[in-house]
TrEMBL record:
Pathway: Metabolic intermediate biosynthesis; chorismate biosynthesis; chorismate from D-erythrose 4-phosphate and phosphoenolpyruvate: step 6/7. Catalyzes the transfer of the enolpyruvyl moiety of phosphoenolpyruvate (PEP) to the 5-hydroxyl of shikimate-3-phosphate (S3P) to produce enolpyruvyl shikimate-3-phosphate and inorganic phosphate. The gene is aroA. This is 3-phosphoshikimate 1-carboxyvinyltransferase. The lineage of its organism: Bacteria, Bacillati, Actinomycetota, Actinomycetes, Micrococcales. Belongs to the EPSP synthase family. InterPro entries: Enolpyruvate_Tfrase_dom, Enolpyruvate_Tfrase_sf, EPSP_synthase, EPSP_synthase_CS, RNA3'P_cycl/enolpyr_Trfase_a/b. One of its GO terms (biological process) is aromatic amino acid family biosynthetic process. GO terms for cellular component: cytoplasm. Residues 15-439 form the Enolpyruvate transferase domain. SUPFAM superfamilies: EPT/RTPC-like.
């Protein structure tokens, strides 16, 4: 008998795949649209949003603050969000969701009362200080627990007064782009908006900040992207912004259709390289702010055939001889993809170097340490560098892969399991953070094979 706590046996691919996989909605877009809907003047309809632990936690947070969120659509899959005056006292469970623990405090400062935020044990270790300090600099009163070196961490108590002055703020976002996104998202509702300057040496996941800017603009908010000297940046200018100015003003409601989560498409597309054959993902957007779109280039560089059809179906075909090419890549814009890419690197014929991802040490787990530990456990050769991981070709064997409550470590292990018999995955249920029913989806994909006749 299998118990929930038993490791899950990752299916081995019995032959090349010929699969179509419908990927659920984007976590990052869903949680941004939800948060902005709580500030909007008219109701917002989210079509095809993500339903997963992280999205449910955001819905729970909004409801705790008084926002009305109703399931709509034929099967209750869509959401209708109606803003109400934000209220405290309230308690918010952030789970292990970066988007909840970083974004919701910026909303909670607008509640009329005290809001307490806490999360999973590991959430209390994830970096929070720049958000807490940034909000304090913008006029908020927040009590925070102290982590290593006295840095602010969960749990937090936000003493909301119903409004926030806002204004200028300097933030070191070298630890996470979410520090910037958090302070920009609720900024239209602050008295003066926000003029935020990033002061750190590096800035990871810039596409996620571009996404924040795009979602704000879609909702009618004026946002300026500037370089360090105050000149225009972003968009067509070719200059990466380091400063953002969000003007105060109304947030529009209306209907938004949520794109599929392209980062979560990653393990399924990677399966085409690990198992051979072709995996197709429909509804791939022609243009997007999702960093996951970089998979098209990354997988092609590893030897895949990648075709985005006019019908919006992305087809990824593994190399005919099964030989995956190693990769030397700076992933700082798309660190979210690192575990998926690392799995393919561990199966590759040539060495790999993944760079620019030091900040992954503050993700759901220390992903650099976790990837090295689990590749090594299966007989592979990997080591940490200052800002990433190096992986050399080596034959892998089965084993029980630890996942550290990290959804992407679980999907990393399942990719390896397609080729390596005997891979067992501890706590496969952790994938529910961003993909409902991942094991069912995965087994259905593995069952869709090229026919022998
Ligand atoms: O804003 C967002 O929705 C996210 C930003 C990124 O965070 P980091 O900048 O911390 O990598 C990404 O990795 C995370 O999965 C989602
Ligand atoms: C880093 C991630 O999540 P979070 O939003 O919790 O930071 C992730 O999903 O890879």
């Amino acid at each position: 008998m299998t118990r929930a706590e038993d490791p899950w046996s990752a299916p081995v691919a019995a032959g090349p795949l010929d699969a179509v996989v419908d990927v659920p909605g984007s976590k990052s877009l869903t949680n941004r649209y939800l948060l902005l809907a709580a500030l909007a003047q008219t109701p917002t309809e989210l079509v095809a949003p993500l339903h997963s632990r992280d999205a449910d936690l955001m819905v729970g947070a909004l409801r705790a603050l008084g926002t009305q969120v109703e399931a709509t659509g034929a099967d209750g899959a869509d959401l209708r969000v109606t803003a109400r005056p934000l209220r405290g006292p309230a308690t918010v469970d952030c789970g292990l969701a970066g988007t909840v623990m970083r974004f919701v405090p910026a909303l909670a400062v607008l509640a009329d009362g005290e809001v307490r935020l806490d999360g999973d044990e590991r959430a209390r270790e994830r970096p929070m200080a720049p958000v807490v300090q940034g909000l304090r600099d913008l006029g908020a009163a927040i009590e925070a627990a102290e982590g290593p070196g006295g840095a602010a961490v969960l749990p937090l108590t936000v003493h909301g007064t119903g409004s926030l002055p806002g204004g200028s703020v300097d933030v070191d976002a070298s630890g996470s782009s979410q520090f910037v996104s958090a302070l920009l998202l609720a900024a239209p509702a602050y008295d003066l908006g926000v003029d935020l300057r990033h002061t750190g040496a590096t800035l990871p996941s810039l596409p996620h900040i571009d996404m924040t800017v795009a979602v704000l603009r879609e909702r009618g908010v004026t946002v300026e992207e500037l370089d360090a000297d105050g000149g225009p940046a972003g968009g067509q200018t070719g200059t990466a912004p380091t400063r953002w100015r969000v003007h105060p003003g109304p947030v529009a409601g209306g209907t938004v259709v949520v794109e599929p989560d392209l980062s979560n498409a990653g393990p399924f597309l990677a399966a085409a390289l690990a198992a051979g054959g072709t995996v197709r993902v429909p509804r791939w957007p022609a243009t997007t702010t999702q960093g996951g779109d970089a998979l098209r280039d990354l997988l092609a560089r590893m030897g895949a055939g990648v075709v985005l059809g006019d019908d919006g179906v992305l087809a990824v075909t593994g190399p005919a001889d099964g030989a995956i090419l190693g990769l030397d890549a700076d992933l700082h814009e798309v660190g979210e993809l690192a575990p998926t890419i690392a799995a393919l690197c561990a199966l590759a014929e040539t060495p790999s170097r993944l760079r620019g991802i030091a900040h992954l040490r503050g993700h759901e787990t220390d992903r650099l340490a976790a990837l090295v530990a689990e590749i090594t456990r299966l007989g592979g050769r990997a080591r940490e560098t200052d800002d990433g991981i190096e992986i050399d070709p080596a034959p892998l064997h089965g084993g029980i892969v630890q996942t550290y409550a990290d959804h992407r470590m679980a999907t990393f292990a399942t990719i390896l399991g397609l080729r390596v018999p005997g891979v067992q995955v501890v706590d496969i249920a952790t994938t529910a953070k961003t993909v409902p029913d991942f094991p069912v989806m995965w087994e259905a994909m593995v069952a869709q094979r090229v026919r022998a006749d």
